[in-house]
Write a structure and sequence with these properties.
single chain, mainly beta, four-stranded mixed beta sheet, 50% strand
Amino acid sequence: MSRDAARPLAPEDVPAVAQLTEQHDMDDGHVFVWRVDGRQVRQSNIWRRVDLELDVAPGSHAVECSYSSADMESTRNARLAFTAEAGRHYVCTPRE
C-alpha cells in the first residue's frame, strides 16, 4: 500500500478546496475512484494499491468508482454526484 500525494483537481486560483478520498478497509472492502468530472485520476496497477487524496474545487462533481472485497467485486463502475464544500473531507464508501 502506498499513499499518492494529494492531487489537485481544483484550479490553482481556488483558495479553498475540499478533499476527496477512498475507503480502504480489510473488513468493509475497498472503493477505487477512477474519474472525477470525466478526468481520469487512477491508472490500473496490479502490483500495488495507491490510495488517492484528491483536492476538488467547491461545487458539483461527478465521480466514477468501483468496489472490491474478499467476497465480491463490482462488475461495472458506479457513477455518483456530490456537491463539495470548501474545507470538507469526503470519503467514497460502499452503500450500506
